[in-house]
Amino acid sequence: MNTRYESLLPEIEQAIARDKAEGRFGKRAFAEENALRRRPDRDKNTLLRPAFVRDCDKILHLPVYNRYNDKTQVFSFYQNDDLSRRGLHVQLVSRIARNIGRLLGLNVDLIEAMALGHDLGHTPFGHAGERILDALYRDRTGRRFCHNVHSVRVLDGMYRRNLTLQTLDGILCHNGEWEQQEYRPVAAMDFAELERRMEACYTAGEAAFDQLVPATLEACVVRVSDMIAYLGKDRQDAMTAHLLPDLSVFSDSAIGTQNARMINNLIVDVVNNSYGKDYLQLSETSFAALRTAKAENYRLIYHNPVAEALYDQTVTPMFAELYERLLADVRQGRRASPVFAHHIEPLRQSAAFYDETADYGQEDPDRIVVDYLAGMTDSYFLALHAYLFPHSPHRVNLHSYFEDLA
C-alpha cells in the first residue's frame, strides 16, 4: 500500500517547456471563436466574456446547480457532512480535468464548463436512483433515462440557456462508467447530430450510450477525469461510513489504493502518454490498474447488499408511488400539485427569460414527471413523499449523526 507519487517524465517536462518557448503550446486547444450556439446572435464571444466563460456562468447561476449539494454521490442514507455529495464530485472533476488540460495546453474554460454541468441531470439517490427512474420510464413509455443525456436536456431543452455545442457535447459524452485506454475525439458535429445522438440514447439505451464519442480533446479529458475523481474518493467515503475497515481490502497496483496517490498517478500517466498527441492515452499498466480498481469499487462499495436491499425494498416503491401520483396530477391538470407549483411554473418563467419561444409543460406527461423526479434532491424527494403519502409504509431511516455514541 505504499505506491509512490509518480512524476512527469523529464522528456515531457522538457517538451512542454520547449513548446511554450517556441509558441507551439496550446495548438490543440479548442478556440473560443469556433464555438457554436443555437442562437449565434446572442451570447457572443468577447474579450471580457469568452464563449466558454459564458457557459460556466450560465451553469453556475442555474437553480439546479444549487441542488448538487443535496444529491447523493454514493452514500444516501447517512447524516454525515464529511461524506461527498454530488457538488463536491463536480468540483473534483473540474479540478482534475483543468489540471490535465493545463498541462496538455487545452482550453481550460471549456473543460470547466463541461465539468460543472456534467451531472446536472443526475437523480436523487445517485446511480441507484438513476436505475430506478430508468426502469419506471422504460416500463411506461419504452424510452430510457440516462443522467448524461438528461444533463443536456436540462441545459438545452428545459432551461434553454443557449450553451455552446461543444460544452453540451462534452456533457453528453462524459459518462465515466465506460473506461477506455484511448480517448480519440471524433470530427466536428452540429446540433442536428447532437439531437440524433440523444434520441438514440432515449430509444436504444446502452447500445447508444456505448457509442458516444466526444468531439473535442477537452471532452475526452473530462470523461477520464470523472473516473479519476470518484475512484479514490468513494473509497475514502466508504471508510468514513464504516462500510470498509481500511484500504487493505483493495489490490495494490501501479496507481495506488489511496485517493491522493490515485489522482496524482493517473494524471501523470495521462499527461506522460498523451502530450503532443491528438488523443488521450493511458499506459497499459495504469489502464489495467484502473479497471481493477473500478471493479473492486463495484464489488466492495457500490453493490453493498445492505444498501441495495434498502433501495429495492424502500426507495424503489417510493419512486413508483410518486411517479404514479405526479403523472395523474399532470394529466388531470391539478394546478395545486407540487409538480405545477414547484416544477412546471418556475421552469416556464426561467426558460422564458432566456428564450421567448419557451413553453415548458406542453411535453408528454411522462417526460414532465421524469424531469421533475430527476431534478429533486434527496431531501426534497423524501419530504415530497411524506407530504403526498403520509400513511405510506415506505420510509427511509437515516443513519444518525450520533449513532456512534449510542
Description of the molecule:
This protein is an all-alpha fold and 406 residues long. It has two domains: 10-307, Hypothetical protein af1432; 308-405, no CATH class. It contains 17 helices and two strands. It has a two-stranded antiparallel sheet. α2 (51-60) packs parallel to α5 (108-117).
Keywords:
406 residues, 17 helices, Hypothetical protein af1432, mainly alpha, 2 strands, two-stranded antiparallel sheet, globular
Briefly, what is this?
This protein has helices spanning 10-21, 51-60, 63-66, 86-104, 108-117, 126-141, 147-158, 165-172, 191-204, 206-209, 217-240, 259-274, 284-302, 305-332, 338-354, 365-374, 378-388, and strands at residues 182-183, 280-281.
Please trace the helix and strand order, writing H or E for each element: HHHHHHHHEHHHHEHHHHH
Q: Quaternary status of these chains?
A: single chain
Helix proportion of residues, in percent?
Answer: 55-70%
Main β sheet profile: 2 strands, antiparallel
Q: For the record, what is the CATH homologous superfamily label of the largest domain?
A: Hypothetical protein af1432
Provide mean pLDDT, rounded.
94
Proportion of beta-strand residues? under 5%
How widely separated are the two ends?
33 Å
The CATH topology of the largest domain turns out to be Hypothetical protein af1432
- Indicate the CATH architecture of the largest domain: Orthogonal Bundle
CATH class of the largest domain: Mainly Alpha
Strand ordering within the main sheet: 1-2
Net shape: globular
Number of helices, counting only DSSP H or I runs of 4 residues or more: 17
